[in-house]
Specification:
One of its GO terms (molecular function) is iron-sulfur cluster binding. InterPro entries: 2Fe-2S_ferredoxin-like_sf (IPR036010), 2Fe-2S_ferredoxin-type (IPR001041), Beta-grasp_dom_sf (IPR012675), Cbr1-like_FAD-bd_dom (IPR008333), FAD-bd_FR_type (IPR017927), FNR_nucleotide-bd (IPR039261), MRET (IPR050415), OxRdtase_FAD/NAD-bd (IPR001433). This is 2Fe-2S iron-sulfur cluster binding domain-containing protein. Pfam families: FAD_binding_6, Fer2, NAD_binding_1. The protein is of the alpha/beta class and about 350 residues long. Helices cover about 20% and strands about 35% of the residues. The strands form 4 sheets. It has a 7-stranded mixed sheet, with helices on both faces. The longest helix has 13 residues.
């Protein structure tokens, strides 16, 4: 048995003989970005401050010889062989450390899919190094020369080895950037992203039931968070309540149905506000929430959508006992207003 010490918080995690650092952290409720879990993508790369470990077989493209000499390792394959292994993890309170944003990273549009009459999905692949990000964060996309000032869009997928980033963009009346994305961007075009930004990532050390509420393309960051949690084996119940005006305004229903069939702890609830349909509830989420969750005092709550939607859902969750430090929200900013990244690079609020 070895001990993993997280720096700078000083918190410790027990690691069984033969267990990887990533597995031990996840069993203790902590999360590292990861994807392949086979030493091939480099997503779980961290610096080891002291102690010895068996790195196992990893690809040089994921962990260069120079990085190895500087003390870095891939935690999906690393197994401690000393009594204590000290690694860089998070901040003084052991919350995840955000990756430094990059400006104007070049990507290619590899696919575009009309998800609903007003939402287009863009799939983007990097021409250089992939952006490292936490699920739930966002990037800036635009082209000022084309009359499309940069706007904030949440990443809709968990990190992948190929670096693909998925954006789901709602057409906003009078919004020049959303119009550019819907009407002018084509497969094969090159675009520039800046990011990642934002703190809509929750606290991976929380081990409680989760309630997610989303409307419109607010589903995007919720998809990324849910994908990452389910892939790392999150065990408590996770419920996603999705609101739309009509059935035509819903998307990703196939993916959500797959997750629900594969993961017993994951449940999807759909509510429509402007039509009644078999298999769906009717009404806005704040109105139906008490019937679904009479007590939210032990839940972590994630809400994403328009500011009005987020505000109403947060108020409803609080009235059912949800604690402020367990409520995580992200609200869009209107594209009618010229927008630059906030000075502190945060779009989200906790509580």
């Amino acid at each position: 048995m070895s001990r993993i010490r997280l720096h700078p918080s000083g918190r410790t995690v027990e690691c069984r003989d033969g267990e990887t650092v990533l597995s031990a952290l996840e069993q203790a409720g902590y999360a590292l970005p990861n994807n392949c879990r086979a030493g091939a993508c480099g997503e779980c790369k961290v610096k080891v401050i002291s102690g010895q470990f068996d790195q196992g077989m990893v690809l040089d493209m994921a962990l260069s010889q120079g990085e190895r000499k500087d003390g870095y390792g891939l935690m999906c394959m690393a197994k401690p062989i000393s009594d204590e292994l000290v690694i860089e993890y998070g901040t003084a309170d052991a919350k995840p450390k955000l990756f430094p944003p990059r400006e104007n990273a070049l990507f290619v549009v590899t696919d575009r899919i009309a998800r609903t009459p007003r939402i287009v999905e863009l799939r983007l692949r990097p021409l250089g190094q992939p952006l490292r990000y936490w699920p739930g964060q966002y990037v800036m996309l635009g082209d000022a020369a084309a009359g499309a000032p940069p706007r904030c869009y949440s990443i809709a997928n968990a990190p992948r080895p190929d670096g693909e980033i998925v954006l789901q963009i709602t057409r906003v009346d009078g919004g020049p950037t959303s119009a550019w994305a819907h009407d002018r961007l084509s497969v094969g075009d090159q675009v520039r992203l800046s990011g990642p930004y934002g703190t809509f990532i929750g606290d991976p050390s929380v081990d409680s039931p989760v309630l997610c509420m989303a409307a419109g393309s607010g589903l995007a960051p919720i998809l990324a968070l849910t994908d990452a949690a389910l892939r790392r084996g999150y065990r408590p119940p996770v419920t996603l309540v999705v609101s739309a005006q009509t059935r035509r305004d819903l998307y990703e229903q196939g993916l959500l149905a797959y997750w629900q069939a594969k993961h017993r702890n994951f449940k999807v609830v759909v509510t429509l506000t402007r039509e009644a349909q078999e298999g769906s509830l009717t009404g806005r989420i704040p109105a139906i929430l008490p019937g679904l969750f009479p007590d939210l005092s032990n839940h972590a709550v994630f809400v994403a959508g328009s500011p009005a939607f987020v505000g109403d859902c947060v108020t409803a969750a609080r009235s059912l006992g949800a604690k402020d430090d367990q409520i995580h929200s992200e609200g869009y900013v209107s594209q009618h207003i010229p927008e630059a990244p906030p000075a502190d690079r945060l779009m989200t609020t906790n509580g």
